[in-house]
Amino acid sequence: MATIIKNGTLITASDTFVADILIENEAIAQIGKDLQHPNAEVIDATNKLIMPGGIDPHVHLDLPMFGTVSSDDHYTGHKAAAFGGTTTAMDFVVLESPSPSGRGARGEGDFQYSVDLWMEKSAKAAIDYSFHMNLTKFNDKIAKEIPSLMKMGIQTLKVFTAYNGKLRLDDGGIFKALRIAKDNGMLMMAHCENGDVIESLIPEALAAGHTSPEYHALTRPAWGAVEATLRMAAMAEQADSPVYIVHMNVGGEVDMLKYARERGVKVMGETCPQYLFFTIENLRQPDGAKWICSPPMRSKQDNARLWEGLHDGVLQTIGTDHCPFFFDGTQSIMYEGKVIAIAGKELGKDDFTKIPNGLPGIQDRMPIMWTYGVRAGHITPNQFVAYNCTNPAKIFGLYPRKGALIPGADADIVIWDAEKKIKYGVAQSHQRTDYNLYEGWELTGYPEKVFLRGKLIVDGEKWLGKSGDGQFLKRGEGEIL
Ligand code: URP
Ligand code: ZN
Ligand code: ZN
Predict the structure, then answer these.
(1) Who is most buried in 99, 204, 294, 336, counting CB within 10 A?
(2) Nearest C-alpha to atom 9 of ligand 1 is from which residue?
């Protein structure tokens, strides 16, 4: 079965040109003018844009948290991703240990056991996917086993400088892990906040009776993120090992990234749409819990500096940190004809520390960034492709199989209708939650058709994908951008 996408305008990370694409055997076979094939189905893409399928480097599907679970699993989250033009998603494996009393108890940490659990969850995948490992414990045994992750196709370790006593590693552990990463061609990803400051401020806020969502942000200060970003960059330099800072949210983090990169430090940065559009003011609204995630929303000045970071190329990627919860999990929604209610943000209605951390975004990323990033003049169409598709593929060892419109690459392709106008929100969203952060936003530009390895999985509003169609992607060493 062959397909020719005719006469579209191809947008890559570096070029824009009109051409045809021939797809055969799940891959791009040829790119050129007037391509012919005796049995190909021909799709006319005149006046449409053609991009590589998006790669979301940062999602949390089916993630247990605060006695509930993020409300998209590896099927619903992937389906939503596809409708937004994303064909590969990278999820974080929780480091767990087998326990005689059943699964899920946290102990020493066992990589193989933890990956197997995540593989089971991902059996329902509808787009291609890979894993990062949360390195939330560190000891001699774990240190020895880190290289085994590369054999499992997991090239990345996420560390936290916050969540004391839970997810955090101390700086010594981070430094040692960085050296192991370097020796094995692995990449460390870092969640940057100051855990000690946060753990001091939270009890103070609660003791003073401050229980509303805005205190989530007020107890996680921006300077903690800035300082931790510089700390991670400094450790990257001292260990001579690259670091990727996830979900950058503060203007000062961009300044630190620029400072370090100008000095040749191998440090890269990701931001997420929510940090470009929203502020602590959103947390002050009656429905402020919708915007609770960690790190929190900041200020308009931070939004502006992050946009500059994308415009100037200081940042390398846009991820989503998609980790949705219902706003009101006591009320059900319908999803694919089934009644669904999953406990969510209401768990923290009297205490901000009990609001599950995370928000939806896997479908929203590319459409929102097109209208409010490209059309608004913050980034070019080529930067859009670089940040959403090509750079994540390069950094995370998937290039040129993914993130590229070149012969030999997987035929993960989006036909983008740059003129399509829609009023966005829950009605268009396949994210399995009861709200959308961009409710009522006017969009111009939206995916029209989405192909996963040559198979049409989204055709306008029609879903043609299926649970189990997504493949696990073993990743090798990536590039340092
Ligand atoms: O609030 C968030 N972002 N939840 C997901 C976990 C993380 O730190 O990325
Ligand atoms: Zn994080
Ligand atoms: Zn995250």
Answers:
(1) 294
(2) 321
Give strand ranges (E) for 332-435. 333-335, 338-340, 413-423
Please state the domain count of the chain: 2
CA of 283 to the centre of ligand 2 (A): 19
User: Do 31 and 105 have their domain in common?
Assistant: no
Name the nearest CA neighbour of 454 among 43, 8, 19, 36.
43
Give the number of residues written for the chain: 481
Residue nearest to atom 7 of ligand 1 (CA): 294
Backbone phi and psi for residue 373, each to the nearest 5 degrees, phi listed first: -110, -60
The domain that holds 137 is classified in CATH as 3.20.20.140
- Based on the domain organization, do 345 and 289 belong to the same domain? yes
Contact 327, 296 (CB under 8 A): no
pTM (2 decimals)? Answer: 0.97
Could you list the beta-strand ranges (E) of 227-299.
Answer: 243-248, 267-271
CA angle at 246 for the pair 241 and 250, rounded to the nearest 5°? 115
Q: Whose CA is nearest to atom 4 of ligand 1?
A: 358
**Atom of ligand 1 lying closest to residue 63 CA:** 5
- Residue 156 tokens, joined: 């990345």
Q: What is the pLDDT of residues 339-395, one digit of tens each?
A: 999 999 999 999 999 999 999 999 999 999 999 999 999 999 999 999 999 999 999
**Are both 422 and 386 inside the same structural domain?**
no
Residues with CB under 6 A from ligand 1: 60, 191, 293-294, 321, 323, 357-358
Q: What is the rounded CA–CA span in Å between residue 182 and residue 187?
A: 7
- Indicate whether 407 and 294 sit together in one domain: no
- Contact predicate 421/37, CB 8 Å: no
pLDDT exceeds cutoff 60 at 103 = no
Q: Are residues 38 and 87 in the same domain?
A: no
Q: Which of 352, 368, 395 is the last residue of a domain?
A: 395
Query: What is the distance in A from the centroid of ligand 3 to the CA of 52?
Result: 24
State pLDDT tens for residues 116-158: 999 999 999 999 999 999 999 999 999 999 999 999 999 999 9
